[in-house]
Amino acid sequence: MVTKGNVFDPNCPTRVILDRIGDKWTVLVVLLLRDGPLRFTELRDGIGRVAPKVLTQTLRRMERDGLVSREVFAEIPPRVVYTLTPMGASLIEPISVLTDWAETHMPAISKAQTQYDAV
Amino acid sequence: MVTKGNVFDPNCPTRVILDRIGDKWTVLVVLLLRDGPLRFTELRDGIGRVAPKVLTQTLRRMERDGLVSREVFAEIPPRVVYTLTPMGASLIEPISVLTDWAETHMPAISKAQTQYDAV
DNA sequence: CGCCAACGGTATCTATTGGTAACTGGCTAC
DNA sequence: GTAGCCAGTTACCAATAGATACCGTTGGCG
């Protein structure tokens, strides 16, 4: 019996979140949008090397989850602006905890890897 | 310029961590091992529906990263025990923050999803 | 008028990955 | 003897991630 939610049940909603976090791009999008709304190309350029298709998928998923809002301006040239919703913004904290951990332990992990590979 | 490490650089080590967290099984393994060492089958049964191949992959990767240690007892029948290293144990906190967030916001996410799908 | 660029994406193809099913080898229980 | 446990491995398949190319609209430029 797991008290803190049944993460071990495949149908557990927590899994959904973890899948999103693991999405590789979701986290980057959240961090990029932390300082304000951005357009599609700004996100693409900010992330670096992302296929537009994948970025679109990520953004749609995040929109569906209520993490970002998508505003289309019917201008020429078209303009689409992505903004963090309050819920999306609340993800910044957990993510920061993770990235902090990552930065702290990265040297140890690298060391462990080289040791492991040396054997 | 990103002050808290350049997560946006594809070569950034933080990415490695995020990939692990996104690993879908890594998190489960950490949570299962929180209460003490477990054997391969215990992990498999605890997670529920995991192909042994995938579990092996996950555990090898975690071993390589220095998150778990693997002990083989040359007995009959063979016995292999997996234990969280101190570094692996330190991952519990960030993960808990995430799962807490997930549980808190899950209703809102579900609602957002049904709303989105209804349109 | 013809050409090109900017924007926010699609369309198509390939590579990687996650996953299933079946098997291994040494033993033990029925 | 044959069925099954343990900790995986091997062969194979489906779904996904990613790279590359392309689309429609319009405005500027020659």
UniProtKB/TrEMBL annotation, chains A, B:
Organism of this sequence: Kribbella rubisoli
Keywords: DNA-binding, Transcription, Transcription regulation
Taxonomic path: Bacteria, Bacillati, Actinomycetota, Actinomycetes, Propionibacteriales
PANTHER family: HTH-TYPE TRANSCRIPTIONAL REGULATOR YODB, TRANSCRIPTIONAL REGULATOR, MARR FAMILY
Domain HTH hxlR-type: start-end pairs: 12-110
A molecular function (GO) term: DNA binding
Ranges annotated as spanning the membrane: none
UniProt keyword Transmembrane present: no
Record's protein name: HxlR family transcriptional regulator
